[in-house]
Design a protein that fits this description.
- This protein is of the alpha/beta class and 485 residues long.
- The chain folds into 3 domains: 148 residues, NAD(P)-binding Rossmann-like Domain (Rossmann fold), CATH 3.40.50.720; 124 residues, no CATH class; 78 residues, Orthogonal Bundle (Rna Polymerase Sigma Factor, Chain: A).
- Strands 6-5-4-3-7-8-9 form a 7-stranded parallel sheet, with helices on both faces. Strands 11-10-12-13 form a 4-stranded mixed sheet, covered by helices on one side.
- The relative contact order is 0.15.
- The N terminus is likely disordered.
Length: 485
């Protein structure tokens, strides 16, 4: 049922990119900036097929020789839609974060469709206590044992207290709660990988809002999902749009994936001004209300680079067949091109609740109140415009495509290094332009130890290594040797 997965050029060896003079001029990068990620020769070509760097393996470089694990949902041919008898039980990991609170908004509006059986949260005990009072889960997990007394005090007087667990063990138990049918993974980073694996092994469908599950764990997670026969349903807006567009698409019918990007806070800034960026500037997203980290990712366009990798794993598309287009209005959330050149798009107001809702309800379509879910008004919407992304302004794109083609543990290192670099930027320990420099240097170092078919332990090891190495680069100041202009 899935689209045929294509071979992934996961390459190893201490080799370097060879960047043509034209590519250097277009991207305004120096040769030292493009460290070896995949052992490939990077060339920018005027291909009609794609406007993105075409990467070819150099002679003598060893490739994985293995196919990408079968993607799900692929064609996404649903069985006959059956209305569920009673509310669907869900577990929610990351209940006090942005994805978590929006998920609970959906549950609150649709109590006949969903019920919460387990919650996992971090340190926001006040909000977690309120969620427990409203949704009455039977199991709750908190990050630190020191939070338990405060949570119990906040729940004093509650008729029936949930079981409270702590740390990684607690999150895993929330993920595999015996009553849950679907697990919503709203936790950030590789912290979401172990509970997601536990949920898959327990036969739970995954409402995927945790990018690292596939970006870092794809080579391990996808075969596991196939083995246990579970469904991985994308909950972010771009992949949900693609998922919706390919419903019923015949096998081999997909020609190209087109990811739309808002362009972030600096869409209209000249490149020369980026050296003056402050944290407050990077957090002014023009369209979406999101957390601090993802808002910075949107400014650098690293969020889109990571989404390219995630789309590769979710839908089995080759990197040459995944493009990025800047769409300032954020009305079209992404598009697919079919083999006969038709382009299918999913449109809606910028509201993360819709993709989360569809992930939870699929294959059903749940009617929504027009008061809380405004319908798209084409007259209010106005014009839709599109722009080619500027590689000089967004060097993270070339870096992400290269890491994706390298495969194995490189994509997890890319994501972890980015997470650490953004954290350092938000702490004002590095400048805005330092973010991509740090990621590039960390990925370049990792080529020495890249693992093509990693275990879960290796994925988690290199996630931690990437964060530590990125921090060390800042402490030593050595990352300043590479300058992106």
């Amino acid at each position: 049922m899935a689209l045929m997965a294509v071979s992934m050029a996961g390459l190893s060896g201490a080799v370097s990119f060879e960047v043509g003079a034209r590519a250097l001029k277009d991207a305004r990068m120096s040769a030292m900036d493009m460290s070896s990620l995949s052992g490939c020769s990077l060339q920018v070509k005027g291909s009609k097929k794609s406007s993105f760097p075409a990467v070819k393996a150099t002679p003598g470089v060893r490739c994985m020789g293995a196919e990408v694990p079968p993607a799900w949902p692929g064609r996404a041919v649903a069985e006959e839609v059956k209305i569920r008898n009673g509310p669907k039980p869900i577990s929610l990991i990351g209940s006090t974060g942005s994805i978590g609170t929006q998920t609970l908004d959906i549950v609150a509006e649709n109590p006949d469709r969903f019920k919460v059986v387990a919650l996992a949260a971090g340190s926001n005990i006040t909000l977690l206590a309120e969620q427990i009072k409203v949704f009455k889960p039977s199991l709750v997990a908190v990050k630190e044992a020191s939070s338990v007394p405060a949570l119990r005090e906040a729940l004093a007087g509650l008729e029936k207290l949930p079981e409270i667990m702590v740390g990684d063990e607690g999150i895993v138990e929330v993920a595999r709660h015996p009553e849950a049918v679907t697990v919503v993974t709203g936790i950030v980073g590789c912290a979401g990988l172990k509970p997601t694996v536990a949920a898959i092994e327990a036969g739970k469908d995954i409402a995927l809002a945790n990018k690292e599950t596939l970006i870092a764990g794809g080579p391990y997670v996808l075969p596991l999902a196939k083995k246990h026969g579970i469904k991985i349903l994308p909950a972010d807006s771009e992949h949900s749009a693609i998922f919706q567009c390919i419903q019923g698409l015949p096998e081999s019918g997909l020609r190209r994936i087109i990811l739309t990007a808002s362009g972030g806070a600096f869409r209209d800034w000249p490149v020369e001004k980026l050296k003056d960026v402050k944290v407050a500037d990077a957090l002014k997203h023009p369209n979406w209300s999101m957390g601090r980290k993802i808002t910075v990712d949107s400014a650098t366009l690293m969020n889109k680079g990571l989404e390219v990798i995630e789309a590769h794993y979710l839908f089995g598309a080759d990197y040459d067949d995944i493009d990025i287009v800047v769409h300032p209005q954020s009305i079209i959330h992404s598009m697919v091109e079919t083999q006969d050149s038709s382009v299918i798009a999913q449109l809606g107001w910028p509201d993360m609740r819709l993709p989360i809702l569809y992930t939870m309800s699929w294959p059903e379509r749940i009617p929504c109140s027009e008061k809380t879910w405004p319908r798209l008004d084409f007259f209010k919407m106005g014009n839709l415009t599109f722009m080619k992304p500027d590689h000089a302004k967004y060097p993270s794109m070339a870096l992400s495509y290269s890491a994706g083609r390298a495969g194995g543990t490189m994509t997890g290192v890319l994501s972890a290094a980015n997470e650490k670099a953004v954290e350092l930027f938000l702490e004002e320990r590095i400048g805005y332009l330092d973010i991509v420099k740090l990621i590039e240097k960390t990925c370049a170092k990792h080529r020495e130890e890249l693992v093509e078919s990693p275990s879960l332990e290796e994925i988690l090891h290199f996630d931690g290594w990437a964060r530590d190495y990125t921090a060390e680069l800042v402490e030593s100041g050595s990352f300043l040797a590479a300058v992106i202009v």
